[in-house]
Amino acid sequence: MFSYLKQVDLIRTLTASEFKLRYRGSLLGVGWSLVSPFLLAIVLYFVFSNVFRFEVENFAFYLLIGIFVFRFLSIGTSVGMMSIINKAHVVTKTSIPREIPTITTTLSYFFSSFIELLILIPILVFFGVKMGLPILLLPVLHIVYFLLVYGLNLFLSAFTVYYRDLNQIWEVVVNILFFASPLVYPISIIPADILPIYMLNPITRLIEMYRSVMLYNTFPDVIDFGYVFIFSCLVFIVGHLVFRRLQRRFAEVI
Description:
Blueprint: H1 8-23, H2 32-52, H3 59-80, H4 83-86, H5 88-93, H6 100-126, H7 138-162, H8 166-179, H9 195-198, H10 202-214, H11 222-246, H12 250-253
Helix pairs in contact: 1-6, 2-3, 3-6, 3-7, 3-8, 3-10, 6-7, 7-11, 10-11
């Protein structure tokens, strides 16, 4: 099931090619991907700090980190779920494993997202946010996050081959997740009686862990990390199982 992962050179080459293609001809390159979340954070900051008046320390950076983290899920899956359809010629006319288009697309957005977070670090430091040993866990968190997003992309890309309007449904799901996760509000406003249900959302715990290491200079909660890691591994495995079952008729349907 995971034998395609041995083709490291092929995966590396195609990922690099896709990453460069995204920014080819762009003056600022990956810098353009920072503009949208910054503008969104500014708008949300003025709305939620003046209208709802949440008492959150460094609320602007609280928002910014949440938005940057969530972008990997929203953009990574919206593009990743179309990876098989968009590269139909690779699936139908070559003998490379059919997981390759999906993993290379996800990896290109993984690196793009990680670079965005790295660029954010000196900005946080400049405005007085303290960084310490916890920031070293940032790559670990992002790798675990990759397992989750890639597992989702395997599942979504396989089903999208058969049901082309799935991307419309997924867009609604992502919008629901945006407001069902603590991006623009603190967890403290969630009523205690529904908090256990609310915390079942792995994105909630992921965002809080990113804020721990990037904003509060603290190590992530062990239980949160364990929950997200196990959840991501399960999604990763289930995604592979679903993809392997559905890929048999890709050539006929595409």
